[in-house]
Amino acid sequence: MASRPAPCCGLAPRCLWLLGLVLLMDTSARPANHSSARDRGGRREDNEILPPDHLNGVKLEMDGHLNKDFHQEVFLGKDTDGFEEDAEPRKSRKKLMVIFSKVDVNGDRRISAKEMQRWIVEKTAEHFQEAVEESKAHFHAVDPDGDGRVSWEEYKVKFLVSKGHSEREVTEKIKNNQELKVDEETQEVLENLKDRWYQADNPPPDRLLSEDEFLSFLHPEHSRGMLRFMVQEIVRDLDQDGDKQLSLPEFISLPVGTVENQHGQDMDDSWVRDRRKEFEELIDSNHDGIVTMAELEEYMDPMNEYNALNEAKQMIAIADENQNQHLEPEEVLKYSEFFTGSKLVDYARSVHEEF
């Protein structure tokens, strides 16, 4: 599975008022099937050598949850500064209009679906490159002898050290084929990582990962084969009847006991509506009520430019109040929360200021 080149130039509507609701909810009442970059903040520092749960610019999380921040990721790319909750509104509006001008290639003050498609693919490329740079740093951290190949044993040592084990003790026990005493949860993670490691190991398998293979191990979106493996894992987790495909009820079903109060119930209802819409309008491409692994793989592929065009059209439809199939400055400012995660006030007046 060769590493995939970054694209040169990928969205379905999501009700972002849910974000405010999430913040008001007690953590214990939050449905397990919701996932946001804000919720995930801070996890990567502690487990940098672990594959991330969240993949920027990919529509589903590793566990099959919808990526709530997808639209913002493919509209802003890495350039999220200036849209924080405490950012000065006028500066945020100005920056949003600068982005508008960059998307509006022909300068007619309207964004077409083709212009948005080009921008989505370009921003996805930024996330791809960021993943490449992060993977390089992590690869060198787990390649102590610097030979450009990492064995499963070398990686296993680093992983267990990150869990608080003694590097010297772990190394010695692995070298002597002695049993390692780890808790049940850590053992389960190790087994899943080992399966993933072997999947990333290009044939002929040697249990050694090169830098490109390690990138695929951490970021399956960079390899068609690893993306397929990720799809298989998601289908396995959601598939209830064992037919290796997903029906609508399977895709929108909730784990037992995820709703504990009315806020949680409201969140669930909205989340189910989102997943139903995603299933029926985007994932189930032949509209037969069943999602195959092939359909899910195409849907999740961030390099699929046809998907990027569909997402561009969906994005425009969300804010296109005058129904002209284009986005205009006033519309982008009014729907700023959808595009940036920040609600910018006085949009109608400020559009004239920024232009």
UniProtKB/TrEMBL annotation:
Biased composition (Basic and acidic residues): 36-47
Entry's transmembrane regions: none
Main location: Golgi
Subcellular localization(s) per the UniProt record: Golgi apparatus lumen
Region (Disordered): 30-53
Short name of any one Pfam family annotated for the protein: EF-hand_7
SUPFAM superfamilies (UniProt xref): EF-hand
Sorted UniProt keywords: Calcium, Glycoprotein, Golgi apparatus, Metal-binding, Repeat, Signal
InterPro entries, per database record: CAB45_EFh, EF-hand-dom_pair, EF_Hand_1_Ca_BS, EF_hand_dom
Signal sequence, renumbered to the chain: 1-29
Ranges for domain EF-hand: 91-126, 130-165, 226-261
Protein family per UniProt: Belongs to the CREC family.
Protein name: 45 kDa calcium-binding protein
The organism of origin for this protein: Pipistrellus nathusii
